[in-house]
TrEMBL record:
Residues 4-122 form the SnoaL-like domain. It holds the Pfam family SnoaL_4. InterPro entries: NTF2-like_dom_sf, SnoaL-like. This is Nuclear transport factor 2 family protein.
Length: 137
């Protein structure tokens, strides 16, 4: 399966929409980004996995003021589809209210739901060392 340019653009915009919705507090719109049974994997942060947009919304609300005030997504790479799934990797930068920031890698599985693309699985991986650890001793 080859992705059209329109599909690639729609998937890239889908990845970007997440940050806008979260930063705007529009958590009731997360179903525009995720499938109803999305698995949101925060294991790399010791927080396990969340299933479904409602669980993601509840976790964000419980995190409260500890949430970043800004989510920026860059370096979006849409990889060749595997069957009906598309793999997407992107970099995320979160800016906290105190001005500090952190970086993550998002690894997403994106699927078509009806006429739209949605994230069916997201792993959020912390970026803790330079060069992915290469050259560290």
């Amino acid at each position: 399966m080859t992705l059209s340019l329109e599909d690639r653009l729609a998937i890239t915009e889908l990845i970007a929409l997440h940050g806008h919705l979260v930063d705007d507090g529009a958590l009731d719109r997360l179903a525009e980004v995720f499938t109803a049974d999305v698995v949101y994997d925060l294991s790399d942060f010791g927080q396990g996995t969340l299933t479904g947009p409602d669980a993601i919304r509840e976790a964000a609300l419980a995190h409260g003021a500890a949430n970043p005030v800004a989510h920026h997504v860059t370096n979006v790479v849409v990889e060749r589809p595997d069957g009906g799934e598309v793999r997407v990797r992107s970099k995320g930068i979160g800016v906290r209210a105190d001005g500090s920031c952190g970086s993550v890698t998002y690894e997403d599985t994106v699927v078509r739901v009806g006429g739209s693309w949605r994230i069916a699985h997201r792993s959020v991986l912390a970026r803790r060392v330079p060069l992915g650890g290469a050259g560290q001793g």
